[in-house]
Structure prediction request, 449 residues.
Amino acid sequence: MTRERGITIIGGGLAGCEAAWQAARRGIGVVLFEMRPVVPTGAHETDRLAELVCSNSLKSDAPGTASHLLKEELRRLGSLAIRIADEVRVPAGHALAVDRNRFAERVTEEILREPLIRLVREEVRELPEQGIRVVATGPLTSESMCRSIAGFAGTANLYFYDAISPIVDAGTLDRSRVFRASRYGKGGEDYLNAPMTAGEYDAFYAALICAESVPLHKFESAVYFEGCLPIEELARRGKDTLRFGPMKPVGLHDPLTGRRPYAAVQLRRETLMADSYNLVGFQNHLRFPEQRRVFRLVPGLEAVEFLRFGQIHRNTYIQSPAILSPTLQARKDPALFFAGQLCGVEGYVESAATGLLAGLNASRVALGLAPVVPPISTACGSLTHYISHAEPRHFQPANISFGLLPEAPDELKRRVRDRQERHRIQVAEALTTMEEWIASLVPAVERVR
Prediction:
């Protein structure tokens, strides 16, 4: 039975869908607004919910990493996004990568199937003033909603530019020039690798730094997120920057030469059918004809057909430390929650995590319970602590990392010298803490209908 007090959620991306799912499984009625396809964006291609517009990778799922810790916590918390990602994953070494079309299809199916969620395809142009609301409009928040949020926050929204990688037709790759492997053999032969000699790299680099980019609007400045720099921006930082970044050859062995390549381009499978690949780390803001010309200089890609060119788009986020509490509630309006990249996290899984926590706390408020905050020693807790306690003037969206988690105690540092082993211990302890925290929420964490 639906509770009398429902929740309004604005935005049908990862965070909004996760928030809606968490509320519904606690017996709370939800109205979920998604403006597509009525109002399109510059990056989305379909009307499906939770469409992944940048990469199809949800980053590392290797045990002992901060990224794995966050995913494991979400699995224990009953995350819709991670459950479906596990269902539709494609081979990608130690990373959790998904068939992006199947992922969006499955999320949409689950949301439409849930009787407590009513999906409304309509743009919400202003922040609602009444009721319990979760704003998860994402990095491509419409201009009208941006103005409304800025008016509420008392300051202009911050922004940075994010770029997406090209996708190519697998059938147009020259398989005689590429080989299958993962760096250091981790995860099997899940990637295609295009090796380059010094001469081939020099020609590619010279073409790249001279290629024409799409100009930004006059009123905008290029404030890129350091974790997702366009490849041409990386190249301008030095000739070898790419060889120590997305084109690093370490851990690869070219079977044709028997040696490590001078540089290498990795291609990651996009779909379960392996009919398309994306160029890993090749996010860019070049004009489409320039992308075709420059990227076809890569051995094996001379005749490749592009299914999607790289693009750049503005990512909007609020100055969260000045606005939000660790519960993801607005300090001056506790019935208003923010989640996803809009609240100052970067990455698919991080967005889903804040959506889950916002949905959980919005549900608790609807049920007359106090909102909760995960312990700071967990990945979820460290994320919400960062976005609510960072220095506001220099705030920038962040991925999960051990740098956000509390520093390892001195006793552990003395006892365990190896940093990776310390991280594995921290992960194990954080998961134990998360399980204890989840147990403390029962019966509120359980489905109530």
